[in-house]
Amino acid sequence: LLTLPSLSVRAARVFPDGERLLTWARDGWATIWDAVRGAKLRSLHAHRNAINAAAIFPDGDRVITGGVDHRARIWSAGSCEVLQELQHAYWVVDVAVAAGGDRV
Fold first, then answer.
1. Pick from 2, 38, 66, 92: most CB atoms within 10 A?
2. pLDDT above 70 (res 77)
3. CB 58 within 8 A of CB 99
4. pTM of the prediction?
5. Local confidence band at 78 (pLDDT 50, 70, 90 cut-offs)
């Protein structure tokens, strides 16, 4: 059982490899965990405010997050580098990745 800080974690997703877990929070941070050992692998301050949603690409190499800052960001799960930013007129309330990983 992985114990996470309950203070701000909104939800979690399991990576396709089954060995990592992605959590995102109201404070704008997204974190990748080792799901077996419970260790934090890396964190990214992905948004200025709350993250509403996140999804993992099928290859497990990228993650997309969407927040109340009107942005969706695609970032590398390995380096936490932001690869692309999509600006929206309103809050991003949900994100999804197509099965082939070619569309969000």
1. 66
2. yes
3. yes
4. 0.89
5. very high
Integer CA distances (angstroms), 87 to 10, 30, 47, 69, in order = 22, 19, 12, 9
Each as own residue / partner, the long-range contacts of residues 76-84 (CB below 8 Å, 24 or more positions apart, any chain) are 77/15, 77/20, 77/22, 77/32, 80/42, 80/43, 80/44, 82/44, 82/46
CA distance linking residue 80 with residue 36, whole number of Å: 21
Residue 91 predicted with pLDDT over 60:
yes
At 48, the pLDDT band (50, 70, 90 cuts) reads confident
- In degrees, rounded to 5, the angle at the alpha carbon of residue 102 between the alpha carbons of residues 100 and 50 is 105
C-alpha closest to that of 58 among 30, 95, 98, 20: 98
**Nearest CA among 18, 60, 55, 6 for reference residue 72:** 55
Residue 73 clears pLDDT 80, i.e. is over it: yes
